[in-house]
Write a structure and sequence with these properties.
It contains six helices and no strands. By secondary structure, it is mostly helical. The chain is flat, with a radius of gyration of 19 Å.
Length: 142
């Protein structure tokens, strides 16, 4: 019985993430297909619509990392590890912030780099949170 519950608890994040990613990909595909129209919802300036349309695919691609982070964070919080999630988030965010400052000082900072670092930030947090979640589930079940 305990092993069955453990498997359910370990599979739940995967199921939640799969559902979220399917919904995200459908919405992202629609937004990309009608990108000038979807961007025109926010602005009517042609130069902004053109620039935003040109980077929308990159933004959508790098934004897909956020659901990984969010699901893993909620899982860790669900097992009572809110403080660990907060501390780890703070440490990783400070490290990425340091990289951003370094890149700014070396004039290597641009929108593409910022988006990729944000994506990496989410994925690193996802990996760490998932590790802590699995360790916590193993402690609870055994």
């Amino acid at each position: 019985m305990a092993e069955k519950n453990k498997n359910k608890l370990l599979n739940l994040p995967f199921i939640a993430l799969t559902i979220i990613l399917i919904i995200y990909l459908i919405i992202a595909a629609i937004l990309y297909i009608i990108r000038p129209l979807s961007i025109a919802f926010f602005t009517n300036k042609p130069e902004i619509i053109e620039r935003a349309s040109s980077i929308l695919l990159l933004v959508l691609f790098t934004s897909i990392a956020q659901p990984f982070f969010e699901v893993a964070k909620f899982n860790l919080q669900a097992v009572g590890k809110e403080k660990i999630a907060l501390v780890i988030t703070g440490v990783v965010n400070l490290l990425i912030f340091g990289v951003l400052i370094y890149l700014k000082q070396s004039s290597e900072l641009n929108l593409k780099t910022i988006l990729l670092l944000l994506s990496c930030n989410y994925l690193v947090l996802y990996l760490i949170f998932t590790l802590f979640y699995r360790l916590e589930i193993n402690k609870i079940i055994h």
